[in-house]
Write a structure and sequence with these properties.
The protein has 388 residues and is α/β, with parallel strands linked by helices. It has a domain of 234 residues: FAD/NAD(P)-binding domain. The chain contains twelve helices and 16 strands. Strands 3, 4, 5, 10, 11, 12, 13, 14 and 15 form a nine-stranded mixed sheet that branches. Strands 1, 2, 6, 7, 8, 9 and 16 form a seven-stranded mixed sheet that branches. The structure holds flavin-adenine dinucleotide.
């Protein structure tokens, strides 16, 4: 347990992982399976919904399989086609692999259960507030000074481990809603991930488990203001621009009381290391790839693997950041460039026309903007003896 604040800051002879999304539990599982003491703090008492398109790339599935997570048991659905949509037209093409899709609420809960089963001391409902210069972590319930600290708090910064957003693309607003589509629209969407491009942003639409559809999108703040900051009005405005989206949403029933919203996601961020930092950054705290790639979860798991590896082999934090930069820097840079270009008017139409003419272009674009299969294979087959 965490000691109360009044008794000073006790030492913890192990790794404290802060954040129980994907990167945190994955690192905790690998460390615990290697016999290391691990404690994990997650601020939510029970798993909650997260802003995420919930598209699991082939690479993300590989990491989850290594960890022993059974996507079938969670009811994950299969997706093997991409449909690119603009105001004027749509084109579909095979993805070239079978992606899966499952709600983060189910996935994150399963990851925390796996971490507990692996032997990590998982504490839910504990919020870390600050990391002090000597490496102590002050939390809602007390404080601790761990031998090593892994910070995997996603988009939320922890005081003392600030994230510098310089050089990133972070002006858009993100929204996510679950919808019950009409049976016809559900049938049309089934097996597809739809990437819907519109003025000032884009949306991802796909089915998740239990016949729900996930609509997750980024819009410009101007558009949000123009529609009076009203989500229903915003959807109507997007539907007026893209009839395909209006058709999908006709008769759809929202499944959440209100949509989830986020701002300031630092797309393009890649932490290159900083001597003297009191903790290691994992997942979105270390690197943020544009959402359209559907590779953020894979990158979070990849970083967790590299960090666990560097800790267990004694290679250290700087070696971990160097490796992460080598593995992910190119894809993050190219995807961020492409996301910036996508905001140029008319480009979406050209992309759809190109995909309609040459369906394999989708696969080429995916290869260009995601971690290379070689880097993923190297990380998965690392020699340290990390148990899968
Ligand atoms: C709009 C959008 C769409 C996306 N779509 C996709 C997609 O389709 N496919 C894909 O692969 N990726 C997608 N991503 C990216 C993906 O969601 C993230 O990259 C991934 O969730 C990062 O995992 P993580 O473990 O770093 O952080 P998270 O999954 O965010 O987990 C962080 C955890 O830390 C906890 N936490 C935060 N602060 C504290 C604290 N102080 N103390 C204790 N706990 C704390 C949180 O409650 C949370 O559970 C999308 C991202 C966005 C913004």
């Amino acid at each position: 347990m965490i000691a109360p604040l009044v008794s000073g800051t006790p030492r913890y002879a192990g790794t404290l992982v802060v954040g129980g999304g994907l990167a945190g539990p994955a690192a905790a599982i690998w460390l615990a399976r290697a016999g290391r003491p691990v404690q994990l703090w997650e601020r939510e008492r029970i798993a909650t919904h997260k802003i995420c398109g919930e598209f699991l790339s082939w690479e993300a599935q590989g990491w989850l399989a290594d960890l022993g997570l059974d996507l079938d048991a969670l009811g994950a659905v299969a997706i093997d086609r991409l449909r690119l949509v603009t105001a004027e037209r749509a084109a579909a093409a095979p993805l070239g692999f079978t992606a899966r899709s499952v709600t983060r609420r189910s996935l994150d809960a399963a990851m925390l259960d796996l971490a507990s089963a692996a032997g990590a001391d998982v504490q839910r409902g504990v919020t870390a507030r600050e990391v002090t210069a000597d490496g102590s972590v002050v939390a809602s319930h007390g404080s601790l000074r761990p031998d090593q600290l892994f910070v995997a708090t996603g988009k939320h910064n922890l005081r003392g481990i600030g994230r510098d957003g310089e050089g990133t693309l972070n002006h858009q607003l993100g929204f996510k809603a679950y919808l019950r589509l009409s049976p016809e629209q559900r049938a049309e969407l089934s097996g597809h991930v739809e990437l819907i491009l519109f003025d000032g942003g884009y949306a991802g639409l796909q089915m998740v488990e239990r016949d729900a559809a996930n609509l997750c999108f980024l819009v410009s703040p101007e558009r949000w203001r123009r529609t009076g900051g009203d989500f229903t009005a915003l959807l109507a405005d997007l539907g007026a621009e893209v009839p395909h989206l209006a058709r999908r949403l006709e008769g759809a029933v929202p499944l959440l009381d209100r949509p989830l919203a986020i701002s300031g996601v630092p797309y393009g961020f890649l932490f290159r290391g900083g001597a003297g930092e009191p903790g290691w950054r994992l997942g979105d705290q270390a690197a943020v790839i544009p959402s359209f790639t559907g590779d953020g979860m894979s990158l979070a798991l990849h970083s967790a693997r590299l960090a666990a590896e560097a800790l267990l082999t004694g290679a250290g934090a700087e070696a971990y950041y160097r490796r992460l930069g080598r593995d992910a820097g190119g894809a993050i840079g190219r995807a961020t460039f492409l996301q910036r270009q996508s905001e140029r008017p008319g480009l979406g139409g050209k992309a759809v026309a190109a995909l309609a003419a040459i369906p394999s272009l989708g696969r080429v674009a995916a290869r260009f903007t995601r971690l290379s299969p070689r880097a993923v294979a190297r990380a998965r087959n690392a020699l340290s003896g990390l148990k899968r």
